[in-house]
Amino acid sequence: MDIKFYREAIQKIKINGDKKYISMHFSFGDSNLEPTQVLHYFDAQKGQRYWYRSKNAPHTYNKVGIQYIKSISRSKFDDEQLQENKDKLFNSIQHVDFGNENKSSLSLFGGMKFAAEETTDEWNDFNVVSFHLAKYQFDFVNKVLIITDKIKNVDLDKILDEVHEMSTTIAKTKIGAVTVPEITRSKDLFVKGWKELVRETIDRLDDDFVKVVLSRQRLIMFKQEIDTNYIFEQLDHDTQNYTIYFENHGAIFVSKTPERLYEIKGKTLFTSAIAGSIAKDTDASQDKKNQDILLHDEKNKYEHQLVADEIVHHLNEFSDEVQYSEMPKILASNFIYHLETDIEAKLKKDVNIFSILERFHPTPATGGLPKDVAMEYIVKKEFGARGLYAAPLGLIHEDNDAEFAVALRSMFIRDRSATLYAGVGIVKESEVESELEETHVKFKPMMDLLGVNDEPQDTVD
Fold this sequence. Notes:
Strand content: 25-35%
Number of domains: 2
Radius of gyration: 23 Å
Number of strands: 22
CATH class of the largest domain: Alpha Beta
Structural class: alpha+beta
Helix content: 25-40%
Largest sheet: 22 strands, mixed
CATH superfamily of the largest domain: Anthranilate synthase
CATH topology of the largest domain: Anthranilate synthase
Shape: globular
């Protein structure tokens, strides 16, 4: 990092007194910083850190945010108010990019809970709707650090000294030995009741209520507080899925999800229908058979088509030009295969990005069909609140470019406990035991992340 260049450049900055914040963009291209190092370096900021990374290299986004300097939080979803708050916040920021060749965009990170109606103690640290502007934003795709501070009493020289210290110290950070959590208890919650609910649901489904996703939980207790550096290390190894790590106060939410809700780039929206699944197999021949079974299985094809049709239906509100492939393809993750259909739409002028978010959530793959009927059924019938499980989380930029992932394959962490979440789509043709087995498969990514190999021997009903 050319500190001399930045030292001379900040002397020329003219503070705009009409703005509330100033954001300065520093290139760290010559410093080999990694997300895990940055998160470890800012351990003292625990409770105000996030990491969002798109799946598959080269990543569209790979950002770490530290210290929430401003948050937009609401107790209910209001698309017009959120758009107004977002525009007001970005309009209050003075940007200084120092003419860097590498460009980055300031982001808000956040999203909404799965359902606004639910309130339980374990999720109280997360608002129903929240988007956070981090003081320190590390963009690992473009190698840019954006520091945002309040203009009132800002000390530019002090900020530059801090940048210099970080650029030299973080790269040398050695995380050292991480602690693999030692389990004291592992148990599946409400298994008997969940199976009874699946049977009841199959009987309830008809032409007016065709699908609903039912989730269940697994609780794992550890001897010591869970080592977040161990979590960071495990997350770093998996680039096949979206990485979501979100701290707020004393709670942590983690997701390794295969599913993107949507990405907006310019005036084009990209999304995918993902529904229908089968487990991977270690035997190559059987694994290939499993893929063929998935592509031709009527129950999975039907479930997938419901999701694709619903997404296209919602997109027609925001676009006059929607394109998608006629046949689904196989989407592979570490433990499971899904059916996937890519969908692309040209957005109409002046579309409210939060309106899109509200229409898209939940997708039929996480809620059901019809949407409102399924949501009411889930909130009323499921055992425990979903919180951020299956919720949309991601990044929004000033120009409305955005990306949201659907937070599947996830867990809620507090102190020495982790609550894992997994769900399955229930249709009329569903079978209780096969749906239960599918949830076991879907717990595996978080079990793997925690270093837990054994299935629970205990259940709580």
